[in-house]
Design brief:
By secondary structure, this protein is an alpha+beta fold. It contains 5 helices and 4 strands; from the N terminus they run αααβαββαβ. The protein has 2 domains: about 1-50; about 65-140, Alpha-Beta Plaits (2-Layer Sandwich). A 4-stranded antiparallel beta sheet has the order 2-3-1-4, with helices on one face. The longest helix is centred in the N-terminal third of the chain and has 23 residues, at about 30-50. The chain starts with a helix and ends with a strand.
Length: about 140
Amino acid sequence: MGARHVFWASEGMPAARVASYAHKMPGPRLLLPLALLVVASGCGAATHAALPDYDRPIPSSEPQAALRLELSLPPGSDCERRFDLALYRERAVRLTAWDDREGCRQRRITLHYLPRRLGRPALLEKVRELAEPGSVKELP
């Protein structure tokens, strides 16, 4: 604190004013948390850069396709949710759109996907694994 008084006093500020401004200067109590925040945010940025970028916009040159299906899901109150979460593990699946029916039987779904990253046969195989056996039918 003494160095601050000398610096301001050398600029021609009266000693009484120096003392009144000294309490407004950021001290070690403020600088330490601020330094930790800067370091932590720098580390966080590096971590986020290493994560998969699910929300990155798809370039307009990337082909997209849709697959319409009718299927039945294993019974449960959250059958749609379980199916969606399992299917979204495939990064090439961009969107699932369900019909307005309720329940898990004979549901219609439209899957939007990136065919360069996941082919139609591989997507159908994944859907068949998640749906009731023998219930998956392609729609026009």
